[in-house]
Amino acid sequence: MAARASARKSRAIHFSVSRFTARPEAPSLIFLALLIVALSASTPEFATVANLRGVLEQVAVVSIVALAVNQVVLAGEIDVSTGSLVAVCSFIYGDVATAHGEAWLALLAALMTGAVVGSINGALATYGRVPSIIATIGMLFILRGIVLLTAGAQVINLSADSRLFGAGTNFGIPTSLIVLATMFIAMYALSEHSAFGRDVYAIGGNPRAARTVGLPIYRVRWLTFVLSGLSCGLAAAVLLGQIGQLQATAATGFELKVIAAIVLGGTRITGGRGSNASPVIGAVLVGVILNALTLNRVPGSYELLVLGALILGAVAFDGCRQRLLGRGR
Amino acid sequence: MPAVILSRRLPRLDRNVGLALVLIVELVIISALVPGYFSLGGLFDASRQFAEAGLIALGMTLIIITGGVDLSVGSLLALVSVTIGFSYQAGLSLATAILAGVAVGALGGFFNGVMVTALGLHPLVVTLATFALYRGIAFAVSKANAVSNFPPWFAFFGEKTIAHLVPVQLVCFVLLAVGFSIVLGRTAFGRRLYAIGHNELTARFSGVNTAAVKIAVYTLTGCLVGLAGVIYTSRISSARANAGFGLELTVIAMVVLGGTKITGGSGTILGTVLGVLILSYLQDGLAFAGVRSDSGLIVTGAFLIVAVLLNERFRKEPR
Amino acid sequence: MSAPPFALRDLGKSFAGIFACRHIDLAVAAGEVLAVVGENGAGKSTLMKCLHGFHAPSEGCIEVDGAAVKFNSPRDAEAAGISMIPQELDLFAELSVFENLFVGQHRPRTRWGGFDRRGMQRRAKEILGSLGVDLDVSLPVKALSAANGKLVEIARALNRDARLIIMDEPTAALTEREAERLFAVIGELKAQGIAVIYITHRLEELFRISDRIIVLRDGALVASGLTANFDIPKLIHAMVGRPLEQFFARHPHPPGEIVLELRQLGRRGSFERIDLQLRAGEVLGLAGLVGAGRSELAQAIFGIAPADSGTIWIGGQPLRIGSVADAIAHGIAYLPEERRSQGLVLPFSIRENISFAALEHFTGWGLVDRRREGAFASDALRRFGIKGAGIDAPVEVLSGGNQQKVLIAKILALEPKIVVFDEPTRGVDIGAKSEIYAIIDELARQGKAIVLISSEMNEVLSIADRIMVLCQGEVTGMFSRSDFSAPAIGAAAAGQRAHHVC
């Protein structure tokens, strides 16, 4: 009698364990845990509050954008214009904040700018039938060109009030993390409890079936791009809050960190599989790895190499897994 | 009958004629608006810059025809340049260093091809990763330094001319363009590229080793990047890791402008060459007129999007 | 008498002037199972696509509850209560069972505004329960077997308040036990008053579950009535139509040496223990139902999906065929089942398609010799009677029959010794069909060894010298001309081993 009960219990435990490992973010979460343990043991400066807090603050900006671009990727597209868009939104924020002194007004301006650019990206990628990689790469360069031309060598310095969204703490928690948490909750609610959010998974997972069912594919994909643009506006406000000043070359290469965070977190690059926790875990993973490099005195010129290797490794791993699980004929 | 219009031949001829007209009109406008621009020497001189992108565009045309894409060419160029410079600095003879650079280019292309075929990964994702990886390696190796002390004969590739007028790299580009045009349009290999772009399954059922063909195309492009890297390093007499920034954008824009559909299955070398010329003379004219170089980014980005937009308008069914 | 819930009145659908089906009059009552049978190309799938809103009918109309309706898309048909379960699973693999049920549908919400997941799970379990099925509805669909996937699709249709469910070859990928379970579920559907249209080639099944049968042939409704009034020979006769002997006059030739031999050839998941001897000058028909493994066997011989056990012998030598290039080098040619997606490059011209597999023969000094290529293509046009355009026109302007002839010319360009035809007359008009039969006959006369895969009983009985029958990947019958009989072959295809198989 007792034997059967314990057998049932161990079966239940085994079942929930296998349930967990089947989740998309499981491999990266496990890897992150192992990495943290290893680093805490090998590098003494790693596990300090100051260091961890610094890592998390940096991770916050990437995560905010990654959460939104995650939806774009889940729906089967991609957005690599985020770096330049954050730069543009930063300048809008900076201009409005210096002109009017109102941080919330500046945030609104940045969000609107992001949304407008996002909807252009989305329109090109859906109704315009331009492959999203092309549209967003083109936009990446156009926006960067605009920023360089209009801002030039300008450096904007912000007043303390304008740094509302990234500086300081509230109840002991850094502001940027509060913004991230808010964003996460909002994305979770949208993704899990709205028809739009569920449609994103369906459209990315099986576009043909989605079309037969009659899902609004173009509209849903377009909306994910708008979300991505909005997140760039928000990230700009946080970034400015953290750094306090801004140059025309800001956030160069940022889009690569965002993509790395998304694929490392477990979202499938072809769409349809992933969760909202994935990009955040991925961003933390990228942040921790880069932090490990810095702490171990590896020169900054290695950062790009590491990012590229990580992205390649993550997609190769997922590709091998799909092959081995017999998706090939 | 609408089906006839879908024939590969008809619009290609029309489109190339249209592009040639655009080029002529553009040159006329530029020479009218920018005094002192139009001279034979000036036109040839501009080719110094576009030959590098043009060479790579030849290979990129083949890749896009098969339905793929390569976003890593700019970064690979940087890696080639750094290889040449730093292996020369490390003691290798310059000739060997040059060969090493070209070999690195071929290897980079080969790696892209293998990742795409062996693991079945989407070329977009693979080359996005190598876009970061290759430049990353370049930065790591060079530690953000540059090498500039090359012997004078090295300038042959990038700065010398033939008959005091025609730059060496232009001759190189023209010869290779002719060669590629023949391969693409007249050989079995070229036919297979178009077939793979239209319908890879049929190509496989017909006995084509699609994996080998794709790897060949990526490796070939890598070799072209190697060659372009030699010319570039020679031209600016410096090897550094931030070479070729934004080059992949320019190259893809040129190829698409020339009529190659981004989804694969169509495109010609002549079209690509016209695309190279149109985009390059536009940028060159702007630079000559004193417009800042940052505007080049905007122009190229806009051209890319508009070109694809117009191309894809004629696609039959949504993705 | 009240109007039937669903009816077709004089329905017809044409593509480019040619009718795929015409003058179809049909009524479906609530809770009835209507079986639709007919050979490939008889018009079944076109008819169902009209009913499901994928195509707009060219003639006639669809009536729902007595009123004529027009469907602009499958979504409209679903709203009217018509659901379709295609042969290939059309679910969202990464989403859970209950999520799949609610895709595109209104989802219940909790008091707090979020989706009521528990409510959705409960409803999913309820629906599946009403079918007598017990599944963990929170599992992702990719973790389910094909049979359970089918059940989820049925549940999805029920969640959309379907009153009519069209099932296309539902048992094609199922084991016998799974098929039994499906039949039980269909019984539950009947009890709930839901009508089912059941399309299948497996004639035995019909007698178990259907109330009425309709037979389509060449786009027309040729027979309809209660299942009790039919038997298998009667069905086959209705499907096939013409007296079997007059269909095509084949000139049997004395077979030559053994050219191809398969010994215990197998590929996990597709077929196993296939023994076969093929002689020069003979036509071997390969019969069986959809999913029997015939195309897989052909593709193993052709190197696309190589076998993993057993041996292939060609000309007396054991060989390893690991790629298409290997197969071609050994003189094997294969006409693929899907000519548009596997055989032809549609935007290419006729001459480019014909020469594509044999480009080496037309190149000199690395370049393609267009004159030689053109001569060969023109000759092929003449030899095979390809009409409709010149050699430089894109192949997509040709009719189905002429496209098929181009494909035949292409695979013969390499002068193979062994030719495997996979459904060569599918989607081909009558005139071109007999021309293709003549081509096959001529090839046999020339001493080539031919395998003819066909789901059309009549075709196989007329053309082949011998017939091998596969069922679920195994050989269930081997018939020589003297033993040819449609019922016996049909029985072997359904799984009953014939006496001749040792």
Q: What composes the largest sheet of chain B? A: 2 strands, antiparallel
Task: Give the helix tally of chain B.
Answer: 14
Fraction of residues in H or I helices of chain B: over 70%
Structural class of the helices, strands and pairings of chain B?
Answer: mainly alpha
Largest sheet of chain C: 6 strands, mixed
Q: What is the straight-line distance between the termini of chain C?
A: 57 Å
Overall geometric form of chain B = globular
Unreliably modeled segments of chain B: 1-10, 315-319
Average pLDDT of chain C, rounded to a whole number, is 87
**Structure annotation, total helices of chain C:** 17
In round numbers, the mean pLDDT of chain B is 85
Number of strands of chain C: 22
Secondary-structure class of chain C: alpha/beta
Radius of gyration of chain C (CA) equals 25 Å
Helix content of chain C: 25-40%
Could you give the order of strands across the largest sheet of chain B?
A: 1-2
Order of helices and strands of chain B: HHHHHHHEEHHHHHHH
SSE map:
The complex is a heterotrimer of chains A (329), B (319) and C (502).
Chain A (H helix, E strand, L loop, with lengths): L1 H20 L4 H17 L6 H26 L7 H19 L2 H23 L6 H20 L4 E2 L11 E2 L2 E2 H19 L1 H11 L1 H7 L3 H27 L1 E2 L7 H11 L12 H19 L7 H22 L5
Antiparallel strand pairs in A: 1-4, 2-3
Chain B lengths: L1 H4 L3 H25 L6 H26 L7 H17 L4 H25 L4 H20 L13 H4 L1 E2 L3 E2 H19 L1 H11 L1 H6 L4 H27 L10 H11 L11 H20 L5 H19 L7
Antiparallel strand pairs in B: 1-2
Chain C lengths: L5 E10 L2 E11 L4 E5 L6 H8 L7 E6 L2 E3 L4 H6 L2 E4 L11 H6 L14 H14 L15 H14 L4 E5 L7 H16 L3 E5 L3 H7 L2 E6 L2 E7 L5 H9 L17 E10 L3 E9 L3 E6 L5 H8 L7 E6 L2 E3 L4 H6 L2 E4 L3 H5 L6 H6 L7 E2 L2 E2 L1 H15 L15 H13 L5 E5 L7 H16 L3 E5 L3 H7 L2 E6 L2 E7 L5 H9 L8
Parallel strand pairs in C: 3-8, 3-9, 6-7, 7-8, 13-20, 13-21, 16-19, 19-20
Antiparallel strand pairs in C: 1-2, 1-4, 4-5, 9-10, 11-12, 11-14, 14-15, 17-18, 21-22
